[in-house]
What we know:
This protein is of the alpha+beta class.
Amino acid sequence: MESMLVQFVVSCLVLLSSCLRNGNAGMTSSFVRSEYPSVDIPLDHKVLAVPKGHNAPQQVHITQGDYDGKAVIISWVTADEPGTSKVQYGTSEKKYEFSAEGTITNYTFYEYKSGYIHHCHVDGLEHDTKYYYKIGSGDSSREFWFITPPKISPDAPYKFGIIGDLGQTFNSLSTLEHYMQSGGQAVLFLGDLSYADRYQYNNIGIRWDSWGRFVEQSTAYQSWIWSAGNHEIDYMPYLGEVTPFKNYLQRYATPYYASKSSNPLWYAIRRASAHIIVLSSYSPFVKYTPQWMWLREELERVDREKTPWLIVLMHIPIYNSNDAHYMEGESMRSVFESWFVHYRVDVVFAGHVHAYERSYRISNIHYNVTSGYQYPIPDKSAPVYITVGDGGNQEGLAGRFRDPQPEYSAFREASYGHSTLEIHNRTHALYHWNRNDDGKKMATDAFVLHNQYWGTNHRRRKLKKHYARKYIDRVAAY
């Protein structure tokens, strides 16, 4: 424990100069990227290859399957025939003591016919345990593994990756490979997966398939916590396709029932020491709608004594100083921002804008159409808002930020990359944004995030362990 603490403190001190620089004055980076063209990887490239063997499982991905991390949903596709939907699993490699049966479905989109989509719910798992699993049959079967999160606990350490707007370009590949080297244990995905909607006719389904194979190198081994963006809507009347989110909902399951949600597009999970709420920017959210009513109830269920870190995911950013998608999040801000402040949300992650931006703790909850201060003001109870819509998709970067930089904006840059949030204990986490600099990972923005619940002096005195207190004065406060 002491060695981990020393390592934590050293890391904090290394970050001190960055914290002070980015925490006291807004900064717009002057970095100019020179990376790969924003074009999709060709279908015959090896990273999109179909696995060998007749009817071999492909597009394998897992996500959390319950509220507390003792279950997973394992999903995959078989192209030629349904085959078996059984998952064999156990705690020793190639020794599968248990099995679970899944479901099989398929669908059409225009004239495209999907493969056979398997979803298997595997529950009754032990926390903090490595499981090996096998899917498929005969010579075409495939084997993978995953590690369950630690038991729900206020001081459970955990490292999340944050990725948004990924797509399937070579910039996307750079982001994915860099994330896989980060030590992240699960991904918080901020919407806009495949960008298949930029194609037409049958190529839409084909590019959903290729994206599933592209991300399998990570998604087969750790949970990706999904949220949907505008590129998942796939509303295409010219093709006779008018059911929103059809491709996405068929392929990517979420554990929405576990959090009493009525819709897979919004839900919540608890993982290690974090309570994570996923919202849908493209579903009704005004007062009395199902999403509004669910969020009101879910926020009441949050227990900061058990899961001190309260994290919200959405696609459209509430605060954004880029010309791209400027003010698109205003309607959701007017509905939910007061709740975020009241419940002291720690951080809100969003995508959509193809650039990176981090805010200070600010709010704009005291303004209405007749009175109140009309600009965002510093608010210690508010979350930090972070836009990570820079995964690498074919639409390219959003390079035009508004000038002058708003006072609420701490750091912004138009580059591809990913983030990590490394929770150390109930009071502190380390956040990094890593830029893809000509194909190389560069730590560009970093700070120490203080927990909104346990970070107050009142609650800090309640801690039985005081080891963090004596060190924390040595690092920069955010």
